[in-house]
Amino acid sequence: SAADIKKAGRQARVAANNHPELHQLLATLARTAGMKLPQMYLLRSDSPYIYTIPGGSGTIVLSTGLRDGLEEAELKALIAHELGHINSHHVRTTLAIKYITNANPVFKVLFFPVLIIKLFSGGWADLAEFSSDRFAVLVTDNSEALNVALVRQAVLADKQADITPEELEAYLSSAGDISTDSTQMERHFRIGSFIGTQPNLQERISQIRDYLSSDEYSQGREKMEQLRSRLGGS
Question: Which of 30, 145, 149, 196 is the most exposed, fewest CB within 10 Å of its CB?
Answer without folding.
Answer: 196
